[in-house]
Fold this sequence. Notes:
- The complex is a heterodimer.
- Chain A is mainly alpha-helical.
- Helix content of chain A is 66%, strand content 6%.
- In chain A, the strands form two sheets. Chain A has a four-stranded mixed beta sheet with strand order 2-1-3-4, with helices on both faces. In chain A, strands 5-6 form a two-stranded antiparallel ribbon.
- In chain A, helix 15 (339-357) packs parallel to helix 17 (374-384).
- Chain A is elongated and about 105 Å long.
- By secondary structure, chain B is α/β, with parallel strands linked by helices.
- Chain B has helices at residues 44-51, 93-103, 108-121, 137-149, 167-182, 194-200, 218-225, 242-246, 271-281, 295-303, 306-316, and strands at residues 6-15, 18-28, 32-37, 59-64, 78-81, 155-159, 186-191, 203-208, 211-217, 229-236, 251-256, 260-265, 284-291.
- Chain B has a six-stranded mixed beta sheet with strand order 5-6-7-3-8-9, with helices on both faces.
Amino acid sequence: MNKTFAIIRREFTERVRTKAFLLSTFGLPVFMVILLVLPVVMMRGSDRTLHVAVVDATEGGETGVGTRIVEALERRTIKKGELPKYKVEHVIPGMRTIDAVRDSLIAQTTGEGPDRLDGVLVLPAGTLLDGSTEYFGTNVGSMEAMGELQGTISGIVTSSRLEAAGVDGSVVSRAMRQASMRTVKVSDGEVTGESGAASFLLAYVMGFLLYIAIILFGQQTMLSVIEEKNSRIMEILASSLRPFQMLMGKVLGVGAVGILQMAIWGGTIFLLGKNRGAIGSLFGLPADAMAAMPIPTIPTDLLVVFLLYFALGFLVYGALFAAVGAMVNSTQEAQQAATGVTMLIVVGFFGTFAVIKDPTSGLGAILSLIPFTAPFVMPVRWSMASVPLPQLAMSLAVMVLGLMAVVWLAAKIYRTGILMYGKKPSLGEVFRWIRA
Amino acid sequence: MSTPAVRFKGVTKRFAGHVAVKHLTMEVPAGGIFGLLGPNGAGKSTSIRMMMDIIEPDDGAITILGSEASARDLSNRVGFLPEERGLYKKMKVLDHLIFFGEVKGIARGEAKRRAGAWLERLGLGAWTDKKIEDLSKGMQQKVQFAGTLLHDPELIVLDEPFSGLDPVNSQVMKDVVIDLAKQGRTVLFSTHIMEQAERMCDHIVIIARGEKVVDGTLSEIKSEFGGRHVALGFSRDKERATRVLADRNLVAKVDDYGASADLELADGAEAEALLEALVREGVGLRRFEVVEPSLQSIFIAKVGDAGVAARSESEAA
């Protein structure tokens, strides 16, 4: 047993130490944080005060719509704080044409210094009538900034019209107050605080992670068997350990690396989902903006099911990949020989799409009872619908039985294959190895 | 007599199309250095791999250290250096040796201590934290050698231990092997380099085409083969010796090296008669010596024996 542990330890430490592992394991969480924060940062626009010139041709004087828009803009602050959102220059064209004034102001949007303008808002004479205004700016790409600017103007125009029609000012301001709606997802009778898109995303991401990880770690197992075969280190191992110990040590060692990586990734999503508010405030982002991000919250039970099925699934496929590695002599041969195993994985992966489409279908229940597809299908089902506990128990039991059968089979192939060199065995020969 | 370290009893191994080892029966006495000799393809490595339980014999039985258990179950008492060396290229030297120790059942701490000691002894102390792939081939071989001996085995099996080593490293390895034998351990090594075997081995088995052709201590083998060899050194008029050397009543076989020759006397012929004949012919002699046959000549005589080859081939078919 200690010998098996030595193999597990070697497989684990040698893999965990590689740059590729460190990069992928910790790179992804960093990437996820960036993915979470970046859109909010970008959508929020810039934090600085925008320098805007308002070309006012409405000729309304001190109480006209132009003046009121300027005043409304000057009242806006950044994030409801102290800093003014806009620094406004109120320009009355007077004797000059609007276009001339506008063009001279647009010329000021280049260069540096305090006089540089971010944009020019043009309020033509008919602003109150048809509501058509123009904005020429360097920041027109920011949907949020444009939306807010337009909202402010629109509100003033609307209330000015109402007041001109004789409606009381206080009534107008009460009537103009907008209704808002917060969207919250409910799962298992509990409020999760996630948006509807997030749960779909979670199912997809999980299916994908399982698919990639099992193929990747499975192939690593296979390649490391081939390496041992080619470097003939196999002879030293074979003279010290039983083939079964070697197989289990290798699969468990590589599997432990996989579990560690999945746990770090899954744990990151879990923590990000739970603490999105705190992370947002760390970057100075408003809590409501963070809540809208499609980062799913992972319930603890789902995390457990996910890791459990990844572990079982990897053991099944890892043992199969190891057996394939034992059969062949080179990586080129291996790709071809592993096609059968890869096909099983692909079937399982496509099964997840069927489940995502209809989480409560019978197909999902059947696929959960096949050891080769259950590792992919079951976690996805668990995330999308409530799976009855007896079904989970049944699926786990089948997984464990299937695992034992696969390991037994793989050990038979492994025992003979690891010391065979030369030509690739035919299927018939492999069957003889299994029977022996 | 103590239990032999290894005993082969009628061991046969067939591979597709040919018999690699045929009814091999031999005993490796406990203690001392045992040489398993033979030309390439004679079945040395196959015998060793069966001994180590890497492959199973088709027939016969192998007993290791007097136990019925397989070499794998006794692996904490057996050290094995395979013919084709293998190391994990990306692993660090010290880690690798610790791993070798661990799969032989040594606790990690102890394995680390011993690995450090071995690396110092083999002059690799400065390389402990280097990766295997950064080492020269000779150094890698020494690491592998240390890995074989790390768990202090009673029986050490080395398949072609000196192949590919430069003279300096070869000397280092030789000293370690001699040292192990002095400690009362059994060292079995295979080689096709006869000089090495002749200088080191107490007991020798030569196999050819899967069959044992010579078995015994070095002195037994030599005396059995006969002290009927003569080494000649010519100083002048070598051509005058031609007739004498061709006389089948005196000389059975000549190994002509130009300025010197090794002769095997014919049955019943005396060395004195040969000397007399050469002097009579007027051959200038620098050297005339009745010598023990070299292992090399025994090897060539035995392995070159066409009978063995023909027999094993007809039986393999």
